[in-house]
Design brief:
Layout lengths: L1 E9 L5 H17 L3 E8 L10 E7 L2 H9 L1 H11 L3 E10 L2
Antiparallel strand pairs: 1-3, 1-4, 2-3
Helix pairs in contact: 1-3
Length: about 100
């Protein structure tokens, strides 16, 4: 099993509704992408100087299914339309779960 963790930091001037739309868009992906085995997304609640805006934790059966997720049209649409226009920084880590 592969765990995919993503931290998304929006620019300070990103509109609040853009943040809400991103979380809604991400939460809709498990219904559209069968490769997703586990999916959880939410807003940072601490809002510290090093905090991301949104965090995502997801699981995939293999690296191949993770790659299928990354290029799936529904995922690409979220990235292109709901993340990139407001993105300051994105960090990801993918590792094997034991």
């Amino acid at each position: 099993m592969i765990r995919h963790v993503v931290l998304i930091k929006f620019k300070d001037d990103a509109p609040e509704d853009a943040k809400d739309k991103l979380v809604q868009g991400l939460r809709a992906l498990p219904e559209k992408i069968s490769e997703i085995k586990y999916y959880d997304v939410g807003f940072d609640i601490v809002k510290g100087p090093n905090s991301a805006t949104v965090g995502l934790v997801s699981d995939f059966q293999s690296l191949e299914t993770l790659e299928s997720y990354k290029i799936h049209p529904a995922h690409v649409e979220v990235v292109e339309n709901l993340i990139k226009p407001y993105l300051e920084k994105i960090t990801a880590v993918d590792f094997e779960r034991e």
